[in-house]
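Sample 1 of the test manifest.
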Amino acid sequence: MSTDSKNEKVRGNIEAQDQDPIAERYETVIGLEVHVQLGTRTKLFCGCENRFGAPPNTLTCPICSGHPGVLPVPNREALRLGILAALSLDCDLQEHCKFDRKHYYYPDLPKGYQISQFDLPFALNGGVRLSSGKVIGLERIHLEEDAGKNLHADGHSHVDLNRAGVPLIEIVGMPEIRSPEEAHDYLESLKRSMRYAGVSECDMEKGSLRCDANISLRQHGASEFGTKVEIKNLNSFKKVVAALQYERKRQAACLDRGEPIHQETRLFDDASQQTRVMRTKEEAMDYRFFPEPDIPPFEISTTEIEALRPLLPERHWERRARFMQEAGLGEYDSMVLTLEQETADYFEAAWKALGPSQEEAKLTANWVMTEVLRLSNEKGLPLSKLPIDPGTLASLCRLIQEGKASNQAARKVFKHMAETGDSPEKALEELGLAQISDPAELEPIVQKVIENSKKAVKDYFKGKKKALDAMKGGVMRETRGRANPGLVSEILLRLLENLREK
Amino acid sequence: MSLLQLSASEMRDKAASGEVSPSELVEASLAAIEAHNKALGAFISVDAEGALARAKELEAAQARGKEPGPLFGVPVGLKDNLCLIHQPMTCGSRILEGYRASYTSTAVQGLLDAGAIPIGRCNMDEFAFGSSTEHSCYGPTRNPWDLERIPGGSSGGSAAAVAARMVPLSLGSDTGGSIRQPAALCGVAGLKPTYGRVSRFGLTAFGSSLDQIGPFARRARDLSLALQAMAGQAPRDATTLDAAAFPPPEPLMDLKGLKVGLPAEYLGEGVHPSIRAQIEAAQKTLAQLGADLIPIQLPHTEYAIPAYYLVATSEASSNLARFDGVRYGKRQKAGNLEDLYLETRGKGFGEEAKRRILLGVFCLSAGYIDAYYVKALKVRTLLRRDFEEAFTKVDVIIGPTTPYPPFRIGESEADPMKLYLCDLLTAPANLAGIPGLSVPCGLDEDGLPVGLQILGPALGDARILQVAEAFENATDFHKQAPREVAP
């Protein structure tokens, strides 16, 4: 789904909520737990490559497949990326940290326990800023290892351990989200923060961002939370919203009937768009957390934090506000341009190359949001690899500004440049699209057209304005559309008035 | 047979000078195993072919002029919980039947790099759970001094193999006394290094915060050589210490000025009178060498056993969770996932392993962890402080290694607590992370060996080895051998 239609959809939902009868009866309370895979070169506790999509069990070793006698040695790069993620969300980094073991049996968990962080996570507090400016608080962020994957084929179950041991951060949000749509906004903002910080691709299809949701309802003004339900198996933002919408309705209906909500874990079923019980509170697991004896407690120093802080770019919401203020762009355009850091960078570089004014910003923004993003989509290339760099786009925009190319001609030039890598001037020349804006060149042509249009001239003097358009068309034909239309009108009027005086 | 009366360092020197070849040493060792293993059950498996091939390689390298390593040509036995690539490793458990290691442990690699030759795999209590080497799926190991008695454990196979002169050197692991106790009961020397000195990478974990790999030999000097080959900060074990490397110490001529601590708690009522007599004699020997004997106290000793069993079983229950038959090991047939786990683990683990896993799972369970595991950690801190306090006053601490002589095989079966109490004098060192060793210090009234335990402060391995060597030089106990293999 394109960004535009995605946002349309969300807007639609927000409007729908205004007449939402559930919202009148209950306040919705949502908290999200988001797992983000860190884009390290190697896994968290061994030297195996951290990469998606390799053939099953080709990125494994005795350590990540849990053979007897192996020991975990933490990957410092994972902690570094974790710190960057935490800083980008304004968390408080913790000086004293440790790892713990979390026990459960499942074939994709090679050691029978996951190495995670229990009571001393590496980051506390912080928040995720929604587009409304509201900040949803975070409880904590901890570092842990991913499990492998169970694959089911031809009546058998197989285990792929390529993912086992991949570094994850779990970002635990406070129950401060108040609607499924806010949850969507939260995820978009969080994803953008992670991508800006350069810690993860956050591609839900590849599983590099995963989300569990907790939801409960309560009477407006109530101080206690209602009984919460956890929803799992939410592998797209759309499903998060759909599951929360369904669950909200289900819980409201229960409460309306005076039935209690059961504390339980539910699975979202994509086919029916409903949630169903996975396990009840009584079946809740005892993970038997205890300190990981194979890894000594570790420290995060202020020096380390301060060395990393300058690596963080401007935050996406700050940049968006700046684009609105400095560049005079609208809210929607600023949002689109800041969805990805590289789009914002591209826009800003092109704008600066073109000139400082807000007008120049708008011209540049239009080109980036249309032709540039389209080209990137078509070619499947990141903006940094496009044949047209920001400086070249600025040169093209300058040709438009200076009247050397019409908008229409400029679009053709853009396509030509994308294929050939030519400069805008050369492309314009090659395509024969250079606009004629030189009065000395245009005047003889206009003169010739007037001489050949006796009837039109007569009609013009009789007061028929349309006759002027016919003569303009004649000039355009003569110049194969390259004449500067404004200049043509100007010269035409002057020469005709000269004629009238005679 | 006379070659096998040599110590590891004597063998090495003879092999290095060309007086004997590594092949001859291997053949002598294989012959001794052939002669005695049926009665003793010290080795689970022997890799004759691999050992002879390696001997030939070493000889070829020597012929090319390669400098012989510090353990050149020395045949060694490996406890069956240490990984050696492509070799079977069972940990004495049915659940690892058919398993072959996919890599080599750091400690074993150290011995290989020093020129040692692995001969075979030594028997042990299943997953090192025990003090008698009766709890192995391959049957018990017997004490070479009395075949009706246990050799101690859990590294009983490694101790018996050295005592019976099958090999001059072997490796074991010590979580609560599993090297020192069988060394004492088999009349050989055994060292548990400081926690963090030898990488645990490739040692099947029992109690991760307690486990250390260490050597058995007949001479303290050999223990030093082996420790040197294995020790060092290791990139694959985050718990190894910066200062882990171990240069072997110079021998001491005497022990003048050495302050030897005698903890009252280590010679209490629970200690068998004939063991007490030998320890008191050893105290006199040390005093004659110039040492000052200083009475000290380790007041929290009585809590060591409960704290040890809570910590060790908790960690063990977690460490053994990986044995599920999914990726390796003996998988039982089952119709669904839950049955797969139940069948595989139910049939794969023996009684003692199950008992310890259950105990550990219970200790870590919600609602109990504070009362058991967390409380045990507090006791552990107190025990550590006992030692820290003591080592401000003394250089080493001595006492018996075991409170009583070896049981008869089967004697402790009905009463596991009796066996657990064997660790009374050894487990404190594991809880505190300090080094300890056991050297022979005489025979009891039944002619069974008695061990003198020497404990040092963290990273004081060199000091306790120096004291042990001085004690050896002043006594003949290390020359004592069980009758069948006596020179």
